[in-house]
């Protein structure tokens, strides 16, 4: 089970959260201009990265807020947690923090 | 065939050749699907200068990790057609492959626990019958008669309100299925190459002409991807995307017990499925982990939920012990249906997206994928399962409908 550090509530068991899939997938700017191929990409195609993956989670049984998480899909190591709207951190320069906030 | 007549040891069932420098076709992935594809390429299309490349050991992926439930009671016509064709093949394959893989048609029940479940189930029974698939609706008493250890009292959280039942459904011994295909492939001249990981592709323009592997470069005219949970990793190497998300899925077994569980019981609503293996272990599965993952392990809370559901439905399980748990990586699509067909890369074909339910489809996946690889065109059965459906919107939405919740 993952121990996820909600930016608002602190570390909680995975069971309190819901997974929301790939992060940083923006709603199309001009939906009426999209081709069928582009609609397919927006609706059905998501990255399926083996390694560091940026994804969305919601703390459904806590603060009910969404946030982004950078997680390794092989080791399940949580490398960073950051706010919606913030750019994906570069894990090489932004050290991941443990729930207590200490450097890992 | 009884347990004292178990088939030959796998080491002697196929050669372990060095890869040749070129083949007419290369299949990536030595699971059940890759092996069945090679078998039908050789048998139905006379293509014998072919290789199956497996990065680990033969059928050590999802093939060796699944709970082996075989059924064809899917809702939509396209699915009923392909899964029922698979079931008909399961019925004749032991003889054709000259190998008894213990296909046991002990029936599969899909329980209904809510009024919504009941309506959906009765509808599916009707749809199955119209498609020539055997199906019955059982009331709780009939459920109890078929599986006496099931708790049908109405004082549990989700009482059993009935079940769909497919008598021809059942289970088979998965390793033996793989070995049966591998042995026949080998007899027909197919090279099965283990410990051979595909790490890239050779292309001329948009046409694939070879594969790069951990055992060197192999030239080939055609490539068939049958890599289940790793399909999108391979697609990325080839330069295209697949609408696939890989998730961990777990299973577990108990210690051996006397025969207590005469059929297969699945519940979508409380989410557990149980059968008793030939030797006597209770074999159980549940849902996928919600998040993407390539680690062959899963979350403990999923097991906790499935055990709670199992013990409520089968009170005698309370004293059973979990002996082993393990995980596989399943390749899910948005409509819970597979993808079998051509790709944006010329001469490269893909069979993937079978998600949590592809073991049952193995023979039909092999048959139709072989047809597509050999002829460049879909078989009647896999035509609706093309990659293009995500663009045309002609989805085959089996989510929930096919008695799977994931
Ligand atoms: C726990 C669990 C329970 C399940 N229960 C059922 C069930 O009851 N009924 C049912 O119908 N289905 C079930 N399934 C689903 C079923 O197992 C799969 O859909 C099916 O096995 C997929 O086809 P396959 O056998 O070829 O896949 P796999 O056996 O996974 O074969 C793919 C192979 O490709 C190899 N590979 C990957 N990348 C490379 C590479 N780069 N180079 C070379 N080789 C590579 C892998 O090592 C692997 O051996 C279950 C799955 C799991 C995990
Ligand atoms: Zn919170």
TrEMBL record, chain A:
It comes from the Bacteria. NCBIfam families: soxD (TIGR01374). This is Sarcosine oxidase subunit delta. It comes from Arthrobacter methylotrophus.
Automatic annotation (TrEMBL), chain B:
Its main location: cytoplasm. It comes from the Bacteria. Its cofactor is FMN; FAD. Coiled coil: none annotated. It holds the Pfam family DAO. It catalyses: sarcosine + O2 + H2O = formaldehyde + glycine + H2O2; sarcosine + (6S)-5,6,7,8-tetrahydrofolate + O2 = (6R)-5,10-methylene-5,6,7,8-tetrahydrofolate + glycine + H2O2. Residues 26-69 form the Rhodanese domain. It is found in: Cytoplasm. Keywords: Cytoplasm, FAD, Flavoprotein, FMN, Nucleotide-binding, Oxidoreductase. Its EC number is 1.5.3.24. NCBIfam families: soxB (TIGR01373). Belongs to the SoxB family. This is Sarcosine oxidase subunit beta.
